[in-house]
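Repro:
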Amino acid sequence: MDRNVQVTASIAESKSQLEKRVRMDPQERCLLVERATSGDEESFEVLVHAYERSIFLAVRQKVYSELEAEEVAQEVFVRAFFALPKLRDQKRFVGWLHGIAHNCVLSHIERKLRRAPPLPLSEEIPIPEPDCAETAPTSVLRAVGGLPERYRQIVNLHFLEDMSQEDISRSLGIAPGPVRSRLHRGIGLLRKTMDADSASGDKRV
C-alpha cells in the first residue's frame, strides 16, 4: 500500500477512535457564531459541543498531561467567547478558534516554565522511556503535533475537522494553491516521521 495512503488511513483511524463531535454545516456554523457574538450563550454551547473534541486533540498534541490539556481546552473556549466580537469574518471561525488554542498552549507552557524550580547544575534531566503500548492513533496525533505550525494547522483542519481544501482556504484566508501545497507537504513530513518511528520500533524489537 502507498505510504501516503497509510498515513491518511492512520489519521482517519485516529479521528474515528478519538473524536466524537457534531458535524456542522458551514452556514449553520456562521449563524451560530453570529448569535453567539450577540450574547446567545445557548448558540455558543452548541459550538463548544461541536468543536470541543477537536480543540482538545489539537491541545493534547503539545500538552503531555491529559488533565492539563482539558484545562487548556476549557480556557480556549472562555477566551473565544469574550473575543467573539473581534471576529470579523464568521466563515473563519474554525481557523480562528484553532489560533486561540495555539496561543493558549503557548501561555500554558510559559506559565509552567515560570513555576518550574531551577535544576541543580549537577542534576541530569531524565529521558522518559518510549511507551511501547502506545496506540497507533495517539502516535499519529503526536506526529501531527510535531509538524511545523504552517502545516499542522491545515492537516488538523483537513483530517480532524473534515474540512475541504476550499473551506480551509476560506477559513484561514489563504489562497487554495498554498493550502493544497502545505497539506501535501504536511502529509509528506508525516510519512517521514512515521517511517522513522517504524524503523526505530523494529530496531528495539
